[in-house]
């Protein structure tokens, strides 16, 4: 069941994994991961749901999805790709679930295709990073310079998965051992007798463009479905409560639930997250 189905989003192939298969008439979830993660990170959540089908997408340049052939990665393009992928999955409406970067993508998608989304679950995220317009010239210059550097840099090859794991765990020190074990295998490609990182290197380049807070507010204000915001005790939203409250104010029908853990609570505290999600989706509340 973990093997991907490939959906066409323009000239990009989006990997979609059905991590849980439910009965006809039960909710159908579409889950969107965060930066440098992949859809298999939703397996613990899928295993703890009592009903429904869960599809987990790999964003372009991540996991088993195709890259962009040297083109830059932009937030708004991720949104467009997810909208196309949701359309390719067939009849909805769906419950969109997004984590971190994926939460912003899911929120924008819900605003763009309200007929396809019955409910929206945002895991430790309320939209993309933003910037004032005056910062754009410097941002674009940095992004172009980093893209050039990344294109010239050959891939780092590790002797084996154990060596790669040490680097992965050090670079992503916020992850528990459980999360590292879950995310690492699909983050690697076999190459020249060793392993290297699966994500397209250009994914790591600074974005060429960030939206403004006014842009984000305009999208959040267009979301028509009920929204659940899941706030891990040690997550990003908990560390930035004022910014989160300003964005939350744009949502018309919103509920909050606090869960234990950090930014990857859907992996490390999947029982609590699954219970909150099902209370919202199946019984219409967060408690």
Task: List strands and helices in order, with pairings.
Elements: E1 5-9, E2 12-20, E3 28-32, H1 43-48, E4 53-57, H2 75-89, E5 94-99, H3 101-112, E6 117-123, H4 136-152, H5 161-171, H6 177-183, E7 188-191, E8 194-197, H7 213-220, E9 227-232, H8 236-239, H9 241-248, E10 254-259, H10 265-268, H11 270-283
Parallel strand pairs: 3-4, 3-5, 5-6, 6-9, 9-10
Antiparallel strand pairs: 1-2, 2-4, 7-8
What does this structure look like?
The model has no long low-confidence stretch (mean pLDDT 95). The protein has a single domain, classed as Alpha/Beta hydrolase fold, catalytic domain (Rossmann fold). It has 287 residues and is an alpha/beta fold. The two termini are 31 Å apart. The protein is globular, with a radius of gyration of 18 Å. It has helices at 43-48, 75-89, 101-112, 136-152, 161-171, 177-183, 213-220, 236-239, 241-248, 265-268, 270-283; strands spanning 5-9, 12-20, 28-32, 53-57, 94-99, 117-123, 188-191, 194-197, 227-232, 254-259.
Task: List descriptors.
about 290 residues, alpha/beta, Rossmann fold, eight-stranded mixed β-sheet, two-stranded antiparallel ribbon
Under the CATH scheme, which class?
Alpha Beta
Class computed from helices, strands and strand pairing: alpha/beta
CATH topology: Rossmann fold
Query: β content, as a range?
Result: 15-25%
CATH H-level superfamily title: Alpha/Beta hydrolase fold, catalytic domain
Report the order of strands and helices.
Answer: EEEHEHEHEHHHEEHEHHEHH
**Poorly predicted spans:** none
Shape: globular
Q: How many beta-strand runs?
A: 10
Total number of distinct structural domains: 1
List the strand order in the largest sheet.
1-2-4-3-5-6-9-10
The average pLDDT value, as a whole number, equals: 95
């Amino acid at each position: 069941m973990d093997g991907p189905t490939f959906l066409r989003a323009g000239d990009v192939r989006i990997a979609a994994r059905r991590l849980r298969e439910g009965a006809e008439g039960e909710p159908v979830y579409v889950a969107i991961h965060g930066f440098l993660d992949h859809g298999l990170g939703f397996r613990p959540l899928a295993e703890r749901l009592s009903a429904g089908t869960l599809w987990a997408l790999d964003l372009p340049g991540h996991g088993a999805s195709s890259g962009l052939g040297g083109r830059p990665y932009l937030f708004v393009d991720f949104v467009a790709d997810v909208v196309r992928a949701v359309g390719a999955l067939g009849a909805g409406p769906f419950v969109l679930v997004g984590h971190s970067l994926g939460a912003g993508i899911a929120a924008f998608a819900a605003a763009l295709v309200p007929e396809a989304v019955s409910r929206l679950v945002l895991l430790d995220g309320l939209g993309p990073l933003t910037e004032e317009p005056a910062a754009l010239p410097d941002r674009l210059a940095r992004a172009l310079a980093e893209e050039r550097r990344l294109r010239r840099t050959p891939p780092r090859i590790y002797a084996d998965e154990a060596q790669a794991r040490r680097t992965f765990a050090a670079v992503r020190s916020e992850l528990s051992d459980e999360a590292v074990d879950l995310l690492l295998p699909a983050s690697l490609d076999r190459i020249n007798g060793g392993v290297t990182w699966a994500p397209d290197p250009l994914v790591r380049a600074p974005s060429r463009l960030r939206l403004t807070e006014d842009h984000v507010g305009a999208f959040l204000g267009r979301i028509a479905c009920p929204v659940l915001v899941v706030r891990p005790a040690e997550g990003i939203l908990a560390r930035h409560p004022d910014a989160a409250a300003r964005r939350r104010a744009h949502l018309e029908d919103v509920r909050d639930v606090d869960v234990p853990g950090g930014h990857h609570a859907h992996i490390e505290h999947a029982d609590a997250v699954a219970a909150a999600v099902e209370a919202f989706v199946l019984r219409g509340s967060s408690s």
